[in-house]
Predict the 3D structure of the following.
Amino acid sequence: MIHNFDRSFEKNNNYETEYLKILYYDLSKDYKEVYKSYQYNRLCTIVNGTKHVKINNGLEFDYNRSDFILLPPNSSVQMEIKEPTIAVVYELSDKLIEDTRNHIQIKFEADAIDVKDSIIKEKFNEALKAPIKRINEYCSSNDPNKTFLIDLCSQELTYNLIKDFFITPNPNNKYFDPVDYTLKFLEENIYETVAINEIATHLNMSASNLTACFKKKTNMTPKEYQNLLKIRTSKEALRHKNVTEVCYDLGFENVSYFIKLFKNYYGETPKQFSMKTIN
């Protein structure tokens, strides 16, 4: 277990390559500390457990193994451990970020926001999970080429991070897909009431044209897909909250409409589903 979370500890408990420094932390319940991200971006992940953090005396939240945080350089983090927690942090070199950012801007003919300017807290997707898994496997292997292989994975990881979270969409370039953008936007805003015409305006399209493109690719309208995401999400929420709370949390304005949608998808009302999970 860690008793003194400082730079000296980090320098002696890491694996380092040209592009990446990997830091491992074993944190006990009720451990509290304030730490710095120093001069590099850090991708913070959790293997087991939960952290409560407050970043730069502002943004405050819990996160666990399903989430990641990307910290800009010189961030200050107040940390509180609510249960025994194992965390792995990937410190990304400036060269890795800059080379990847330049490549993406050329490939996608779009501007990439400076990674050093933003705090990102998101759910993991498969494009990030896969290279991280391989990095961890190589770290614990005896492969004589593991340093080289880790750097290859770190390029893939950084490529996906910047492409997914730091590219400014440009509907005029040949790589841009308005349907993919809409899918991602709806998935990232499940708890919001998203007006399709607002997305269409952002994409310099009419709502009817976006809907037609979306339906051709997915066999659903954007509204139908949005409702499907919300109803799927509601099943887990109903294990902990009542029907009305879940309805309004997910941005529905009418409980009867929420109940009707749920029954259309699952053949039972939210209340019936909730009672079944309790019993």
Remarks:
- Strands lie at 14-16, 20-27, 32-36, 41-48, 50-55, 59-64, 67-71, 76-81, 85-92, 120-123.
- The first strand starts at residue 14 and ends at 16.
- DSSP finds eleven helices and ten strands in the chain.
- The CA atoms of residues 81 and 139 lie 25 Å apart.
